[in-house]
Structures are given as structure tokens and as C-alpha cells.
Amino acid sequence: MNKTKVVEGKSIYGQNVFEPNKDFEKQFGTYSIDLLKPEEEAVKLCEYLEGLVNERYAAEVKASKKPDSLSTRLPFVRHTDKAGNETGDIRFKFKLKAGGVGDNGEWYQKPAVLDAKRKPMSGEKLIGNGSRVKVAFNPSVYFVQGTVGVTLKLDAVQVIDLVPHKDPAALFDDEDGYTESAVEKDDRQESPFDSEETDIAEGNF
Known about the structure:
The longest helix is centred in the N-terminal third of the chain and has 25 residues, at 39-63. This protein has one helix at residues 39-63; strands at 5-12, 30-38, 71-73, 76-80, 86-97, 99-102, 105-108, 112-114, 132-144, 147-161. With 205 residues, the chain is mainly beta. It has one domain (5-171): CATH 2.40.50.140.
């Protein structure tokens, strides 16, 4: 039996850890999160997962009458940007079925989502792309229709640094250049923009 593993990286689609996505599994839905990790830091985990798949693949090849028809599938890929260029990160995919139907009727489950101090998060603030998180998961090897693979079963998520979902700042990296700084108000001059209503709402998109 595989032990629970923990991996740290930057999140993608982290909002789906609070509410299950029903696009693929419509009745109950699936909780999920993707995680980006620099390739040089992801080598050990990739090798471990490949080892699980290769071990099972070798056993299935030995037992199969048509070994050439078998294939493998891994739960990670090289991450690319919108232009199709590789970013240097490895993208891991974690998921957990929200429920199902068993001998005793319907059953339900959900991943734990914790903050940096290990306190449960309410989901009021969704996890945006680029948040630094830790993901606890259990690898589960499968053999379905001639394909050997491993599913990364999502167990829990810990949010270390939160980037709120739909935060415009998450779309960019820091650059050298202009930096906005606070400007002290000059009471000697009147400004057409000075009023009691000085709050500026942050726009979501």
C-alpha cells in the first residue's frame, strides 16, 4: 500500500478544491488541483511515479497475450504557456471523486483545505493561480483497457501563500522598472479628485 506523499509548488485551478467540477463526472463531480514545480525540483517525484507505472507495466506485459498493445500514462506533463512554449515547469494533476454509489448507497468525500497554520479554510477566498501550496496525495496505480497509469488521489491542500482567484497581479511576474509609491497629500492645493469618497474598488475579471 502506498503511503501519503506531500509535494509543494504553485497552484493552477486551485478553486476546484472547494467545489467539485462536474464537467467530467456530472453526478457527483471531482475535486481537483494542478501544481507546477520546476523541472529540476520535480525529478525525484517524476522518477518515483514512473517507477510505480513501469513496475505494473512489466507485470502486465508478462501476463498479456498481446504485450505490444499495452501502453502507459503518467499524471504529469511538461507545462507550456499560451503560445505553446515550455516554461521549465512540470505540471502534476491531482483529483478526488466527490462521491459515488456503493453497496450501502451513495457515499461522499472531500479534500481537507488548510491555511499555513493548519486551520481549515472556509472557501470564502478561492485559491488562485500562482498560490504556493502543499498537496498531500496517495498514488493509485491502475490498469484499464490496456493502459497502465497512476492517479494522484487528492487528500489535502495546505495554502502557504494565497493569491486570490482572479487577482490581476497573478497574471504577471515582477519586473525592473516603474514602481508606484505613496504620495503625500498637499493641503495647500485643492484637487478636483479630493472628496470624502476616496475608496477605489478593486475590479475582478
